[in-house]
Amino acid sequence: MQTKREIYMDKLKRNIDNWNVEIGHFEAKAEQSKTGLQADFRKQVAELKASHHELEAKLLDLQATSEAVWEDVKVGVDAVRQALGDSIESAKHRFN
Hints:
Blueprint: H1 4-32, H2 35-64, H3 70-95
């Protein structure tokens, strides 16, 4: 049986993987967009990638923590995860 920590990390990994795919789609759309919008879209994709990398780093930090303190680290991870999720949702509306 998985611990709460393992379940949380598995869910986080799935989020990271799914968002990576979505960012790839945004990147492709940015390249296909009209010249006037392309710079804005590229900037947004770069910001999403930076947030994505930050979340990946937080996951590594979480994996390195002990079972006793992981919930303390989880608070910071949740903040980054929520911010990236909100940014992805915003980008979905912008890129469509």
